[in-house]
Give the backbone structure.
Amino acid sequence: MSDKPSPPQLRHQIDQFLQAVDNLPAPRKERGRIMFAMDATASRQPTWDHACQLQSDMFAHTRGLGGLSMQLCFYRGYYEFRVSPWYDDPDELLRAGQTVRCRGGHTQIGRVLRHALEEHQRQPLQAVIFIGDCIEESLDDLCHQAGKLGLLDLPLFLFQEGNDATASQGFADMARLSGGAHCAFDDHSASQLSELLNAVAVYASGGREALRELLQQGSPSLKTLARQLRLEVHKP
């Protein structure tokens, strides 16, 4: 029997995800800072380039809102962990991501979370985005780190590729403890992933009012999500 989420389950996850974004506290009125972390182990090669393009697209949705700075963070191979400079230019970020090739290895999500804590202490972040498909580490340790992020009001937005049951439970717990959200995606919901990523970017740059405007004035699917979230009765 397949563990793949059904369409209604995916819609419910998307609703919960956007609700979590809308309920976040308003970020500071300056350039938003998002750490974008990705699993670059061998299983992710088919969708790596697409994910890099989505990062670049996020910049376009924050123009006029105060701007966005983004850092690319990834792990792969034998205990290899890389962090890029902070980019304000989407083209530079896209070029950096496209030079990366995935390599076999185990997950290092714990290192991602520890790095996020260090970056946040140097200069506050508004969000940490992670895209991955599995967990091969202690869930207790990961949840402990996620809880630390939550105490600092730094939400994790975890996007799960595929249907690994352990990853689903672990990502959901980490999102809850950090005050963020978890959402699964597959080939049939790739466009929805793009919309959700853009929603996080708009929140980081312009706050909830900017997010509300995006949802209400965007594509038909985003307008539908806005109605489901009843954003017209929410106040910033």
Notes: The first strand starts at residue 32 and ends at 39.
